[in-house]
Design a protein that fits this description.
Layout (H helix, E strand, L loop, with lengths): L1 H38 L7 E6 L14 E6 L19 E2 L14 E2 L1 H5 L5 E7 L2 H6 L5 E7 L7 E12 L11 E7 H11 L4 E5 L3
Antiparallel strand pairs: 1-2, 3-4, 5-8, 6-7, 6-9, 7-8
């Protein structure tokens, strides 16, 4: 019996010696993996934000093709931004927006502005020379002037007492010329008809 027990001990010792190095390698690998997992940084929280999918000129009516979403750290999300579920589809851009720039309520002509219109007033967006677009400010009362096709030096006033609602934020290119006006429906139609064949300009009225 004792001889048999000694034989088993010898077999066990040989087995341990044979597998000692492989077992040590496995244990070392597990230790390395455990250490790597411990130092892996935790993913930072992000928020999905609606941004312009292309450069949007002033007065653009936003469609689904005009926007996309990006993930931003909470600290980088501007106030008044839109989540993917409440993108301002169908509303007007009040000022130019560059591709990738978050859309915010401050740059959108929306129900808030429309709610403040007087009875019979509507919003319209017109293109004027860049210098004119930067001359006016929201709240200014202006006259809309159209070049007269009968002569280079002639011009007609096509609308009076129009109130400036929104203007461009910068004048980097030809898309930065749109001004949003509030005026009565008949005058807005007259302005739209004049814009079909004539360049438009604005005259600022004094107080």
């Amino acid at each position: 019996m004792e001889a048999r027990w000694r034989a088993r001990r010898r077999d066990l010792s040989r087995t341990i010696v044979r597998w000692r190095r492989p077992l040590a390698a496995v244990a070392g690998g597990l230790a390395v993996l455990s250490g790597l997992a411990a130092v892996q940084p935790h993913p930072l929280p992000v928020e999905q934000v609606t941004v312009a999918g292309r450069d949007l000129p002033s007065g653009t009516r936003i469609s689904h093709a005009d926007v996309t979403t990006v993930a931003l750290p909470p600290a980088a999300v501007p106030d008044g931004s839109y989540s993917p579920g409440d993108a301002p589809i169908g509303r007007l851009v009040a000022a130019p927006v560059r591709r990738g720039e978050p859309l915010t309520d401050a740059g959108i002509v929306g129900p808030g502005l429309a709610a403040e219109l007087a009875a019979g007033e509507v919003l319209t967006s017109i293109e004027v020379p860049v210098a004119t677009a930067w001359l006016v400010r929201p709240g200014d009362v202006v006259e809309v002037v159209a070049g007269n096709p009968r002569g280079a030096d002639a011009a007609d006033v096509v609308a009076t007492s129009a109130t400036v609602v929104a203007t461009p934020r910068d004048a980097d290119g030809p898309d930065d010329r749109a001004v949003v006006l509030a005026l009565d429906g008949a005058a807005a139609l007259h302005v739209a008809q004049a814009a079909l064949g004539s360049p438009l300009a604005l005259l600022v009225r004094g107080p």
